[in-house]
Amino acid sequence: MNKQSVYQLILQQLQDDLQIILRAAQTAYETATHEENIAENKYDTLGLEAAYLAAGQSRRVEEIRQALSLWQSLVLRPYEPQAGIQVGALLGLEDEKGHEQWLFLGPDGAGLKVQVVGQLVTVITPRSPLGASLLGKSEDDEVEIVVAGSRQQFTVTEVR
Protein backbone atom coordinates (compact mmCIF):
# COMPACT_ATOMS: atom_id res chain seq x y z
CA MET A 1 0.00 0.00 0.00
CA ASN A 2 1.50 3.30 -1.12
CA LYS A 3 1.33 6.15 1.40
CA GLN A 4 1.25 8.83 -1.31
CA SER A 5 -1.73 7.12 -2.98
CA VAL A 6 -3.61 6.94 0.32
CA TYR A 7 -2.81 10.61 0.94
CA GLN A 8 -4.19 11.56 -2.49
CA LEU A 9 -7.39 9.56 -1.85
CA ILE A 10 -7.88 11.34 1.47
CA LEU A 11 -7.42 14.75 -0.19
CA GLN A 12 -9.90 13.78 -2.92
CA GLN A 13 -12.44 12.57 -0.33
CA LEU A 14 -12.15 15.85 1.59
CA GLN A 15 -12.59 17.86 -1.63
CA ASP A 16 -15.64 15.77 -2.57
CA ASP A 17 -17.09 16.20 0.93
CA LEU A 18 -16.55 19.96 0.69
CA GLN A 19 -18.42 20.18 -2.63
CA ILE A 20 -21.34 18.17 -1.24
CA ILE A 21 -21.62 20.24 1.93
CA LEU A 22 -21.32 23.50 -0.04
CA ARG A 23 -24.33 22.47 -2.15
CA ALA A 24 -26.26 21.43 0.97
CA ALA A 25 -25.45 24.73 2.71
CA GLN A 26 -26.56 26.72 -0.32
CA THR A 27 -29.83 24.80 -0.52
CA ALA A 28 -30.49 25.32 3.18
CA TYR A 29 -29.72 29.05 2.84
CA GLU A 30 -32.06 29.41 -0.14
CA THR A 31 -34.81 27.60 1.76
CA ALA A 32 -34.31 29.78 4.84
CA THR A 33 -34.44 33.02 2.86
CA HIS A 34 -37.13 32.15 0.32
CA GLU A 35 -40.14 34.47 0.52
CA GLU A 36 -42.58 31.54 0.67
CA ASN A 37 -41.00 30.43 3.95
CA ILE A 38 -41.68 33.63 5.88
CA ALA A 39 -43.56 32.64 9.02
CA GLU A 40 -47.26 33.48 8.93
CA ASN A 41 -47.81 32.62 12.60
CA LYS A 42 -45.84 31.34 15.60
CA TYR A 43 -46.38 27.71 14.55
CA ASP A 44 -44.96 28.21 11.07
CA THR A 45 -41.31 27.27 11.70
CA LEU A 46 -40.07 26.03 8.32
CA GLY A 47 -37.96 29.15 7.71
CA LEU A 48 -36.53 29.03 11.24
CA GLU A 49 -35.66 25.34 10.93
CA ALA A 50 -34.00 25.96 7.57
CA ALA A 51 -31.99 28.82 9.11
CA TYR A 52 -30.71 26.52 11.87
CA LEU A 53 -29.81 23.93 9.25
CA ALA A 54 -28.03 26.54 7.12
CA ALA A 55 -26.00 27.69 10.14
CA GLY A 56 -24.97 24.11 10.94
CA GLN A 57 -24.06 23.45 7.31
CA SER A 58 -21.94 26.61 7.26
CA ARG A 59 -20.02 25.45 10.33
CA ARG A 60 -19.42 22.07 8.68
CA VAL A 61 -18.13 23.82 5.52
CA GLU A 62 -15.54 25.62 7.64
CA GLU A 63 -14.54 22.41 9.45
CA ILE A 64 -13.94 20.62 6.16
CA ARG A 65 -12.08 23.61 4.71
CA GLN A 66 -9.81 23.65 7.75
CA ALA A 67 -9.18 19.90 7.53
CA LEU A 68 -8.45 20.18 3.81
CA SER A 69 -6.02 23.03 4.42
CA LEU A 70 -4.18 21.05 7.10
CA TRP A 71 -3.95 18.00 4.83
CA GLN A 72 -2.73 20.10 1.89
CA SER A 73 0.07 21.56 4.01
CA LEU A 74 1.11 18.13 5.37
CA VAL A 75 4.56 17.13 4.19
CA LEU A 76 4.77 13.36 3.82
CA ARG A 77 8.07 12.03 5.08
CA PRO A 78 9.39 8.50 4.98
CA TYR A 79 9.08 6.57 8.22
CA GLU A 80 12.15 6.97 10.41
CA PRO A 81 12.39 4.22 13.07
CA GLN A 82 14.43 6.42 15.44
CA ALA A 83 11.67 9.08 15.45
CA GLY A 84 8.84 6.56 15.57
CA ILE A 85 5.29 7.09 14.34
CA GLN A 86 4.49 10.72 13.57
CA VAL A 87 1.63 12.59 11.87
CA GLY A 88 1.69 11.45 8.24
CA ALA A 89 2.34 7.79 9.06
CA LEU A 90 0.42 4.97 7.40
CA LEU A 91 0.37 1.98 9.70
CA GLY A 92 -1.04 -1.46 10.27
CA LEU A 93 -2.36 -2.50 13.68
CA GLU A 94 -3.33 -5.93 14.90
CA ASP A 95 -5.61 -6.44 17.88
CA GLU A 96 -5.47 -9.25 20.44
CA LYS A 97 -7.77 -11.40 18.28
CA GLY A 98 -5.53 -11.09 15.22
CA HIS A 99 -7.73 -8.60 13.32
CA GLU A 100 -5.63 -6.17 11.33
CA GLN A 101 -6.59 -2.64 10.39
CA TRP A 102 -4.86 0.15 8.51
CA LEU A 103 -4.72 3.68 9.88
CA PHE A 104 -3.40 6.98 8.59
CA LEU A 105 -2.33 9.33 11.38
CA GLY A 106 -3.38 12.70 10.01
CA PRO A 107 -3.63 16.30 11.16
CA ASP A 108 -7.45 16.36 11.04
CA GLY A 109 -10.41 14.52 9.54
CA ALA A 110 -10.67 11.74 12.11
CA GLY A 111 -13.03 8.99 11.08
CA LEU A 112 -12.64 9.56 7.35
CA LYS A 113 -12.29 6.25 5.51
CA VAL A 114 -10.89 5.44 2.09
CA GLN A 115 -10.62 2.18 0.17
CA VAL A 116 -7.20 1.29 -1.22
CA VAL A 117 -6.93 -1.89 -3.28
CA GLY A 118 -9.79 -3.46 -1.33
CA GLN A 119 -8.33 -2.41 2.03
CA LEU A 120 -10.09 0.10 4.27
CA VAL A 121 -7.85 2.84 5.69
CA THR A 122 -9.20 4.97 8.54
CA VAL A 123 -7.90 8.42 9.42
CA ILE A 124 -7.11 9.06 13.08
CA THR A 125 -5.51 12.08 14.73
CA PRO A 126 -3.14 12.56 17.66
CA ARG A 127 -6.11 14.01 19.60
CA SER A 128 -7.66 10.53 19.88
CA PRO A 129 -6.52 8.14 22.62
CA LEU A 130 -5.21 5.68 20.04
CA GLY A 131 -3.49 8.37 17.97
CA ALA A 132 -1.82 9.86 21.05
CA SER A 133 -0.59 6.46 22.21
CA LEU A 134 0.86 5.67 18.77
CA LEU A 135 3.10 8.75 18.61
CA GLY A 136 6.75 7.72 18.84
CA LYS A 137 6.01 3.99 18.62
CA SER A 138 7.73 1.66 16.14
CA GLU A 139 6.96 -1.59 14.36
CA ASP A 140 6.30 -4.50 16.75
CA ASP A 141 5.55 -2.11 19.65
CA GLU A 142 2.42 -2.74 21.67
CA VAL A 143 -0.12 -0.01 22.36
CA GLU A 144 -2.77 -0.15 25.04
CA ILE A 145 -5.78 2.12 25.42
CA VAL A 146 -8.86 2.11 27.62
CA VAL A 147 -12.16 2.87 25.90
CA ALA A 148 -15.37 3.01 27.94
CA GLY A 149 -13.66 1.08 30.75
CA SER A 150 -12.50 -1.67 28.41
CA ARG A 151 -8.78 -2.27 27.83
CA GLN A 152 -7.73 -2.73 24.22
CA GLN A 153 -4.27 -3.82 23.15
CA PHE A 154 -2.77 -3.54 19.69
CA THR A 155 0.53 -4.42 18.04
CA VAL A 156 2.00 -2.15 15.36
CA THR A 157 2.61 -4.53 12.46
CA GLU A 158 3.87 -2.15 9.81
CA VAL A 159 4.66 1.56 9.42
CA ARG A 160 5.13 3.53 6.21
From TrEMBL:
Annotated GO MF terms: translation elongation factor activity
Q: In which domain of life is the source organism classified?
A: Bacteria
- One Pfam family name is GreA_GreB
Which UniProt keywords are present, listed alphabetically?
Elongation factor, Protein biosynthesis
The UniProt entry, under Gene3D superfamilies, shows: Transcription elongation factor, GreA/GreB, C-terminal domain
Show where the Transcription elongation factor GreA/GreB C-terminal domain sits. 102-159
Which InterPro entries does this entry report, sorted A to Z?
GreA/GreB_C_sf, Tscrpt_elong_fac_GreA/B_C, Tscrpt_elong_fac_GreA/B_fam
- Return the protein name: GreA/GreB family elongation factor
Q: What is the lineage of its organism?
A: Bacteria, Pseudomonadati, Pseudomonadota, Gammaproteobacteria, Pseudomonadales
